[in-house]
Automatic annotation (TrEMBL):
Name of protein: N-acetyl-gamma-glutamyl-phosphate reductase
Primary localization: cytoplasm
GO biological process: L-arginine biosynthetic process
Reaction catalyzed: N-acetyl-L-glutamate 5-semialdehyde + phosphate + NADP(+) = N-acetyl-L-glutamyl 5-phosphate + NADPH + H(+)
PANTHER family the UniProt entry points to: N-ACETYL-GAMMA-GLUTAMYL-PHOSPHATE REDUCTASE, CHLOROPLASTIC-RELATED (PTHR32338:SF10), N-ACETYL-GAMMA-GLUTAMYL-PHOSPHATE REDUCTASE, CHLOROPLASTIC-RELATED-RELATED (PTHR32338)
CDD domains named among the record's database cross-references: AGPR_2_C (cd23935), AGPR_2_N (cd17896)
One annotated GO molecular function: NAD binding
Compartments where found: Cytoplasm
Coiled coil: none
Keywords carried by this UniProt record: Amino-acid biosynthesis, Arginine biosynthesis, Cytoplasm, NADP, Oxidoreductase
Pathway: Amino-acid biosynthesis; L-arginine biosynthesis; N(2)-acetyl-L-ornithine from L-glutamate: step 3/4
General function of this protein: Catalyzes the NADPH-dependent reduction of N-acetyl-5-glutamyl phosphate to yield N-acetyl-L-glutamate 5-semialdehyde.
Originating gene: argC
Domain of life: Bacteria
């Protein structure tokens, strides 16, 4: 039985380490690794990428672009976990649940761009609703999200977890210049005609995202309320292995939202909260920024590609 060769370029970073841990010991593939002394050698890395059946890039954006430029073997398939190619022509967006055909597009693709952590939740909530015409493409959207500090990468993890780390602040809100690099990705793949406002933050816990999008029903098409929004999401994600939609929640019955509720999984938990008296709806997504928001999604995409190669 053929065992495809997989190379993780950047396997010492937060996402790369997680992907390596998820793939280590699997019998259906072989992992190509470089000695510590060669991990930063451009020539050895290029050789490894070109020898692989699938290369997974866990690199900064510029380094990811350079790695792709070094590919001369036309058979090599790439999953890029950076943000370098998420809106680029010729790349398939790596969210299998985007629509009915997306999983097959990923399976057949030579170049797959793994989604960003925050965009995963925002697009999962918005794309079905915008496509169905329930949320106008020009709705003035604001996306709020809080992530564990691991969303800041290896440096942030070391800063919070080193023995001499100072007491962590509760929440740090950032991206206040309203120019976060995830915004074009959200706009393009959610089908929005204008940039949404995106307000991200880090919490003092390690991992897990809670993302919210508020809607005013008076700004939605006539007759569209929480029930229709929920029904649309239910129809879109019915049978999706890694997406769960909670029952519609009304008013005072609303529970608390725990960003760590599905940590260490590849699950994406969506919910719709409604207050009909005030004409307001809150769309929410909870998921692991290291799982469905990064390494879990990469492995899910890899599995689709490997199945097509079998």
């Amino acid at each position: 039985m053929h065992q495809p060769l997989v190379f993780i370029d950047g396997d010492q970073g937060t996402t790369g380490l997680q992907i390596h841990a998820r793939l280590h010991g699997r019998s259906d593939l072989r992992l190509l690794t470089l000695p510590d002394s060669e991990r930063k050698d451009p020539q050895r890395r290029a050789e490894a990428i070109n020898n692989a059946d699938v290369a997974i890039l866990c690199l900064p954006d510029d380094a990811a672009k350079q790695a792709v430029a070094a590919i001369i073997n036309p058979a090599v398939r790439v999953i890029d976990a950076s943000s370098a190619h998420r809106t680029a022509a010729g790349w398939v967006y790596g969210l299998p649940e985007l629509d009915e055909q997306q999983a097959e597009r990923i399976a057949q693709a030579k170049r797959v761009s793994n989604p960003g952590c925050y965009p995963t939740g925002a697009i999962a909530l918005l794309r079905p609703l915008v496509s169905a015409g329930l949320v106008p493409a020009d709705y003035p959207l604001t996306v709020n999200a809080v992530s564990g500090y691991s969303g800041g990468g290896r440096a942030a993890v070391e800063r919070h977890e080193s023995p001499d780390a100072q007491a962590a602040q509760g929440v740090l809100v950032y991206g206040l210049n309203l120019d976060h690099k995830h915004v074009p990705e959200i706009q393009q793949h959610a089908g929005l005609s204008h940039r949404p406002v995106f307000v991200p933050s880090y919490g003092s816990y390690r991992q897990g995202i809670a993302l919210t999008i508020a809607l005013q029903t008076r700004l939605l098409p006539a007759g569209v309320g929480a029930a229709r929004l929920h029904a649309c999401l239910h129809e879109h994600y019915h049978g999706a292995r890694h997406v769960q939609l909670a029952p519609l929640v009304h008013g005072e019955a609303a529970p608390m939202l725990d960003p760590q509720a599905v940590n260490d999984s590849n699950d994406l938990r969506l919910a719709v909260f409604a207050n009909e008296v005030h004409g307001q709806v809150l769309l929410t997504a909870v998921f692991d920024n290291l799982g469905k928001g990064a390494s879990g999604a990469a492995v899910q995409n890899l599995d689709l590609m490997l199945a097509a190669m079998a």
